[in-house]
Amino acid sequence: MNCRAIGRKVPLNVILEREVARIDRIWSQHREIYSSVGPWLFGEFSIADCMFAPVASRFKTYRIKVSTASAEYMHFILNHEQMGEWVSQAHAEPETIDVAEIGI
User: Fold this and answer.
1) Could you give the percent of the chain with pLDDT greater than 90?
2) DSSP 3-state assignment of 7?
3) How does DSSP classify residue 99?
4) DSSP secondary structure code for residue 17 in this structure
5) pLDDT at 103 over 60
């Protein structure tokens, strides 16, 4: 994935819309259940958050609209110190793959 890219556009077809809705439901439902425990998907940090961090980044890149609960989860992940470090290191990477650099 290219976390340096921002503002990319992709037409959402029925399949993509269904997948976005599925992820949005997962995030929203789990945050509703576990929000009293902590800010992560299952309250406390887990491998699920590692798996969904790139998804949150892609949703940001493509400006995917999600529910309020999911947007709050994305905001937490994307503004976490370690995620910021990962993105900073990506921006410092000198090597590029031309086809992956399309976009703003």
Assistant:
1) 70
2) coil
3) G
4) H
5) no
Q: Rounded to 5 degrees, what are φ and ψ at 85? A: -65, -40
Amino acid making up residue 90: A
The 3-state secondary structure of 39-95, one letter per residue? CECEEECCHHHHHHHHHHHHHHHCCCCCCHHHHHHHHHHHCCHHHHHHHHHHHHCCC
Contacts of 90 (CB under 8 A, 6+ apart): 2, 3, 4
pLDDT digits (tens, 9 = 90+) for 8-19: 788 889 999 999
Q: Which of 52, 53, 35 is nearest to 44 (CA)?
A: 35
Half-sphere exposure of 67 toward its Cβ, with a 13 Å CA cutoff? 15
Q: What is the pTM of this model?
A: 0.85
Domain ranges of the chain: 14-93
